[in-house]
Amino acid sequence: MTAHAHVLPSPIERFDLQSQIVLQGDPAARATLSAREGFEFPDLAGSRQSIAWLLQNELSVRVAVEGADPGTGGVGVEQAVAAVMARLGRTRCVADHYQPSEDPDDYRNADDQVGALDFTCHLPDPAPLRQHYAELREAATPLERQQRSHRLLLAYVEHLRSAPDRPVRGHHATWSRPWTADHAVMQSMAVMDTILPELFPFDGWDQDED
User: Fold this and answer.
1) Fewer CB in a 10 Å sphere around the end CB: N or C, the chain?
2) How confident is the model at residue 207 (pLDDT cuts 50, 70, 90)?
3) What tens digit of pLDDT does each residue of 142-190 get?
4) Residue 180 has what pLDDT?
5) SS3 sequence, the chain?
6) In Å, how far from its chain's centre is CA 163?
């Protein structure tokens, strides 16, 4: 056992370690968290692969592109998804504050209760891409759709590579201590509810238009 064994992390410490595992696959964070929780925390590589697969499917139904187009510097759906995952790996999320619930029904015992966790993730502002996406949705012919799809993908990849970060505040309810490794994974992946709308904003824009 390490020096951290059996010293349970606080909700803030747990969030910070979980985020490093979710976003960067950090082996040191995983070893520390596993020792302190008393169970082996998964590396979540499969979860990240599932996200990439889902994003590839979601993007494929939106653009009229098959493979990479040499005319756009080799940018296709796969390259765009790779850029999303690369930016995800550079993302940093840090807990700001944890407030335990004041409702006695939210307590299983003195060390195990529901509370509200506030956190900040540093992510690019997707707003500059919205006009490209709007133009794609308004394409009137297959040729226009293809051309605008390529323009969107090219802008999207460049945006993910170089757009500056800005703070995005997040908030969710969380147990102060996960019950099992499976519960810990479910709890740790909740940060994606804040991150993905910023890195893959198209779902939200579709809902705004519909």
Assistant:
1) C
2) confident
3) 999 999 999 999 999 999 999 999 999 999 888 777 767 788 888 889 9
4) 75
5) CCCCCCCCCCHHHHHHHHHHHHHHCCHHHHHHHHHHHCCCCCCCHHHHHHHHHHHHHHHHCCCCCCCCEHHHCCECHHHHHHHHHHHHHHCEEEEEEEEECCCHHHEEECCEEEEEEEEEEEEECCHHHHHHHHHHHCCCCHHHHHHHHHHHHHHHHHHHHHCCEEEEEEEEEEECCCCCHHHHHHHHHCCHHHHHHHHCCHHHHHHHHC
6) 17
Tokens describing residue 164: 């500056």
Nearest CA to 106 out of 20, 175, 45 is that of: 175
Nearest CA-CA partner of 118 in 196, 200, 197, 15: 15
pLDDT band for position 7 (50/70/90)? confident
CA 104 – CA 111 distance, rounded (Å): 13
Token pair in block for residue 180: 């099992």
Q: How many CB atoms lie within 10 A of CB 77?
A: 22
- For residue 57, give both structure tokens: 């499917």
